[in-house]
Amino acid sequence: MNTPASFPGGSFPFDFLNFDFTAPHPAQDADLLKQLAFIPGLKEILMVRQVHALEHATVWVLSESKSNYRPISKPTNVPVDNELLGGLSTEQGFYLYGEVNISDLRRAVTLARHRLTSGEWDLAVHPRCGTNLSVAMLLTAGLAIGVHLLLPFRPIEQIIGLGLAATTAAEIAPDVGMMAQRYVTTAIPFNLAIENIAIARDVWGRQGHFVKVNWQD
Fold first, then answer.
1. Which end of the chain has fewer CB atoms surrounding its CB within 10 Å, N or C?
2. pLDDT for position 124
């Protein structure tokens, strides 16, 4: 989630050294798209990031509606997560899997977008996101290769090193995964408008509700 800034001299539209990662700007993705519209697939990437955040926030809202609890407004308590719900984001919208009333889903999506764009940015991050698993796998593989190359090529040292690598990766992966979600794989959906919600099947034939969105500058 990058905030647009002016570059001294006007030679470049963004100052990558002075991004304010904690304060998303409503026009950040729209401005980025205008400046770099020549990059193929950029709009689709930006849409997927915003859809991804909306998907997570919708799951949070649906989960708390079952428990009458708001996870972000009371950070001292443990957020409630309905593990029976899941999602899949695309550049056109997201699939929501699990038993949910379509009227409840419509209200949840609208509320999720409103809360995200009103400052509840933590709703964009979810502990069950596939990003966390991908980060954990990359960390484990990277650390394993690192200790393999750094330690002597003897069985005992290698086994101990691999154990330490796996333990270290397991400890830091959740935090790194959350950071990856916040700054890489999601963005606040300032540019998304909800177009339609209907029952649909994904490319693997799984049935769920599809929340279709469109881009608005």
1. C
2. 96
- Give the ranges where the chain is alpha helix by DSSP (H): 28-35, 42-67, 102-117, 130-150, 155-180
As a residue count, the chain comes to 217
* pLDDT, tens digit, 9 for 90 and up, residues 70-98: 444 444 455 678 889 999 999 999 999 99
Residues 56 and 78 in one domain: yes
**Gap between the Cα atoms of 33 and 47, Å rounded:** 11
Q: 102: domain range?
A: 8-125+186-215
What is the spatial distance between Cα 122 and Cα 71, in angstroms, rounded to a whole number? 9
Give tens-digit pLDDT for 116-134: 999 999 999 999 999 999 9
The reply to whether 39 falls in a domain is yes
Tokens representing 52? 């991804």
Looking at the structure of the chain, the number of domains it has is 2
Rounded Cα gap, residues 198 and 189, in angstroms: 20
**Token representation of residue 206:** 């799984």
| pTM for this model (two decimals) | 0.81
- Amino acid identity for residue 197 in this structure: I
Asked whether residue 173 falls in the same domain as residue 190, the answer is no
